[in-house]
Amino acid sequence: MIGHMTWLDEIYDRLEQSIQNHQSAHAFLLTGNLGIGKADLALKLATTFLSENAYLNNKEGIPDCQIINPDEGKQIISIDQIRALKSFLLLTSLKGKGKVGIINPADAMNRAAANSLLKILEEPPKDTLIILVSESINNLPRTIISRVQVIEVKTPSKETTLSWLQTMNNKEDWEQIIDIFGSRPILLERLGYDHLNHQIELVANDLENLLKKKVKPSQLANSWKAEDLEINLRILYFWFSQFLYHNLLQERESKILPNSLRDLLDLDLKVEESFNFLQELSSIRQYKIQGRALNWSLQITNLLSPMYSNLKGLQNNESRT
């Protein structure tokens, strides 16, 4: 068992014996959503390969295992880091059980780093295991994918996520947070209930003020902190997608929506423009995740403008009522 992460047990149990006996593939690619425990699974597989009984939270103290992440303040994994990994894998094992390299996230490698890794995968040193961690198989070159065993780490169910989070913190109700951010227990626990709940309340209040013309899009854009921007956009995306769903089906009630949007479910919206707005919202959020260097104040101002004053920018001339 990997701690209390029971949703990972099936994968680990399937691989445990072959990895322990060094009869598995020489390289794995763990793919799946962010925040579901792929890094913890990689570490557990590494300790099994090395016959170590290290605790999962002791990520810096496992002999014969090197973890490659982007250097502090950077978003890429460089060729020098991959070359250093190769040198590490060629060294004699301290405990005689082999060597393990973990690259997380693997899609952070630049092209030169990926090409350097490909050479290692083609001619892996003896008694070594390389574990790549990535959100999607599509984020890596096909040449690398063809030389690793791909393992899809499935997202746990909402019920499993809720149960796990309540085990960590049984005083709070995580259900609304899971609805908005998805079943990503490790990520949600790391971000914390208090922080996520605070951001949900903040965005709900900001959205109401925007719709009622109490605050201008530019003022709202300037008030959102850069470190919370991706979370705020995720909340807004979820609420507006749910709003569109209920609006198009002419459903008058939704417990998921904040009052400010629930009160507007009768509006007659321009469908194409509403979906374009949702797509733009998704794109800007992805730009933020990718670390694009944009004028975020301007981006958010332009994005929120159609929502100013009861969604007038997205309405047809007449309402349904």
How would you describe this structure to a colleague?
The chain is an alpha/beta fold. The protein is built from 15 helices and 5 strands. The protein has helices spanning 9-20, 38-49, 79-90, 111-122, 142-145, 158-168, 175-181, 185-191, 193-211, 217-223, 229-248, 259-262, 271-290, 296-304, 308-311; strands spanning 27-31, 65-68, 99-103, 128-134, 149-152. Strands 2-3-4-1-5 form a 5-stranded parallel beta sheet, with helices on both faces. α3 runs parallel beside α4 and α10 (217-223) crosses α14. The longest helix has 20 residues, at 229-248. The relative contact order is 0.10. Mean pLDDT is 91; it is low at 55-59.
Summary, kept brief:
The chain is of the alpha/beta class.
